[in-house]
Amino acid sequence: MTYQPSAQTFGASRREILASVTAAGLTLSFAVAPKAAAEDAGAKALNAYVRIAPDGVVTIMAKNPEIGQGIKTSLPMMIAEELDVDWKNVRIEQADNDPKTFGRQFAGGSMATPLHWDELRRVGAVARLMLINAAAQAWNCQPGECATTPGNVVHKASGKSRSYGSLALACADVATPDPKSVTLKDPKAYRIVGKPTPQYDVAKIVSGQPLFGIDVKRPGMLYATFAKAPVFGAKVAGADLDAAKAVKGVRKAFVVDGDPNGLAPPGALGTGLLPGVAVVADSWWAARKGRDKAAIRWADHPTAQQSSKGFAARAKDLAAAAPQKTTRNDGDVDAALKGAAKTVEAAYAYPFLAHAPLEPMNCTAEFKDGKLEIWAPTQNPEPGRQLCARTLGIKPEDITVHMTRCGGGFGRRLGNDYMVEAAWIAREAGAPVKLLWSREDDIQHGFYRPGGFHFFKGGVDAAGNLVAWRDHFVTYGDDKGAASSAGMAPTEFPSRFVPNYRQDVSFMALGMPTGPMRAPGSNALAWAHQSFIDELAHAAGADPLAFQLKLLGDKPTVGEAPAIYNAARMKGVLQAAGEMSGWAARGKLPKGQGLGIACYYSHLGYFAEVCHVAVSPAGEIAVKKMWVAADVGRQIVNPLGAMNQVQGATIEGLSHALYQQVTLADGHVEQSNFTDYPLIRIDKAPPVEVKFVITDYPPTGLGEPALPPALPALTNAIFAATGKRVRELPIRPETLKA
Amino acid sequence: MAYTLNVNGKALSADVDGDTPLLWTLRDALGIVGPKFGCGVAACGACTVHVDGQPMRSCQIPTDSVGAAKITTIGGMAAHPVGKKVQAAWMELDVAQCGYCQPGQIMSATALLASTPKPTDAQIDAAMAGNLCRCATYTRIRAAIKRASGQKEA
């Protein structure tokens, strides 16, 4: 059986991005329409995002899910900037799922900044202009005679001033200006955007106040566990429900048959409602004990034979055979390889990964009078609502989704399997229910960053030019195409930069859900490609940095939007990373140490990273430092958050390379907790020095693009330190022994 | 049965089974949700509380073993002379990304500074390596501990 989720490749698909832009444009006029927001305590709603109270306190709605990327702070900063208020007078409220008002609300693809940079500044500017117009009416003057200082409208000639709080009510009589026609601030005048701004929730975070999905409590709420089969999608063959119910505090225990489309719900990422056993109790601990007593037996399933070892062997066989598909073929690769001064052949392999956000999957649901209310830590609420509606057979408009802060996302909460489970269990239980997964549930029932295999051949000419590149990519999928996040674009670098380039693909059917994980596609492709480029640089006897710069050629850009590649921007960050790291002096490092360099373009950002590693004679790896040069355009919205994202993503990349893998045996995931699925810890996390290279392009996102180059920077550094090339992840220190 | 626990200086009564881990007694029975659930096997540190001043993983402590020990959670840090400094440093440097692990990080950092007011990098590593941060905010965690201890940050 092949698991084939929807063709949606979140975060990687430009079609999706463009669709979101269009949707955002359409909703803007609705968002700035008057009286769209709830009004309270005398506060006046100027539009869906902005309310102003008589005391001048401004409440701004945070439309998108907060998963740690800082969006609850940075999007309102854009509005507050153009509204012209003091940040200390701003209060931020998390919006519910409400696409009619707010357009698409999701955390994915590092898209929030590029999608909202223009739109949300206009939302703020429209509100400011309404306040100016209200003051002009009161003063019986032309709006052009007025200006604003933070929180006040002033009459320039007379110096008269009115606070926003005193004008807000009068905005009811003012027409809403066309958002397209409002004038935006000169960036030189920014008081909020570009200033280091702590997360809005920082005080609540450090004092442990309830913020997250797991902290939700409802009157009369019960707690639930939901056990699913180790082999994805297997049905319940039997369970001792009476033993589960005999546990003190257990109220209900029942079998859930699941949705026939549960493994691949249409229009949704990840899985839907799968078969399993639900236990509902007065406490989560009791529910867990009940689950342990239920002695569940699982039915046979056709994917119970699959294993990571089997896939690796099959990939080798496929690589030796003719490819199933050729996705790009420029020039004549075979001839160019024959004519090359040097050729290199290498096979790269990377494993499945689990997202493992630290807050396990959970959701609270309440089903009452045919209506469903949900509190969920989700990155993608509307598809969750639709999934619940389809699975439970109720109307989407009868479902409300409240978004809580997410204890990490990384793409995992783009799928809403835990939401539909909670909804189903709550309806069956006839009470509000908080469903909480264990860590073992999380590691074993995710959708996974797909593993993959690249069989490369490359050639350089006598002048050290990369003249031939052939990749036979063996990935997961079937005749319909790659599994979710398992594909590769024909524009993958270095295609278009190598005259003779061929990209072949073969697929292996997989009975395991896959999907986007932070920097989907890129998080693996960058490692394989940037490692092989480094191999070719060494084959050419070239400085890897100089080789990369030469490969990028003389044209500033290659290709057309949306697949444009800006070689000039990439060269800029490569040169910056070289300077920051003292690349030119790397020959002076002691034996067993080395610098490695890598670059990658993803999510509209250009990143180059240098890693300094020391490898002991026993093969122990110590990453001493990372340098990151980042080009995300002309404006860093919140430098404090931006730095955190880049440092965290870089260290996460190291964690992938050093530790993480999910393996399949007998059809199930072998790992189960942080004991056998280790993540990087503070003692192995290096300092990360970051430089933002400012270029005159629109600002883009930072949740993802720093991650991909970290892995090849590390493994290229290991080569520089040891002469040993890492071609399989995670790195096995025993292979690096001197 | 009912257990009376000393939590953040208050005597609180919880009616739970004795084998219920302290984490769940705090969270579900007492509504104290600062300690977080991350792994259930003492591998992530998100549930860290102080037991008589020592940092412990509350997911591994059966409620019936607590007795009269003084339990301090993140909610008790505002009244803790070291804890409030640590919290302040965490806020100033905006350490958190998702924030889920941070109560546990702050509990471990506070215990470290209470016993070792000027920790070295190696001491910070040793004391903090039990606390995972999935967002990998380690750079700032280290800087915040340095700041709270009045040492140079980098």
Characterise this structure.
The complex is a heterodimer of chains A (738) and B (154). Chain A is built from 18 helices and 30 strands. Helices cover 29% and strands 22% of the residues of chain A. Mean pLDDT of chain A is 94; it is low at 1-26. In chain A, strand 19 and strand 20 (466-478) form a beta hairpin. By secondary structure, chain A is of the alpha+beta class. In chain A, helix 1 (14-31) runs parallel beside helix 4 and helix 11 (381-392) crosses helix 12. Among the domains of chain A are: 14-206, Aldehyde Oxidoreductase, domain 4 (2-Layer Sandwich); 213-299 and 357-444, Aldehyde oxidase/xanthine dehydrogenase, molybdopterin binding domain (Aldehyde Oxidoreductase, domain 4, 2-Layer Sandwich). Chain B is an alpha+beta fold. Chain B is 34% helix and 15% strand. Chain B has five helices and five strands, in the order ββαβββαααα. Chain B has helices at residues 22-29, 81-92, 102-115, 121-128, 138-148; strands spanning 2-7, 10-15, 48-51, 54-57, 70-72. Chain B has a five-stranded mixed β-sheet, sandwiched between helices. In chain B, strand 3 (48-51) and strand 4 (54-57) form a beta hairpin. The longest helix of chain B has 14 residues, at 102-115. Chain B is elongated and about 50 Å long. The N and C termini of chain B lie far apart (51 Å). At the A-B interface, helix 6, helix 8 and helix 17 of A face helix 1, helix 2, helix 3, helix 4 and helix 5 of B.
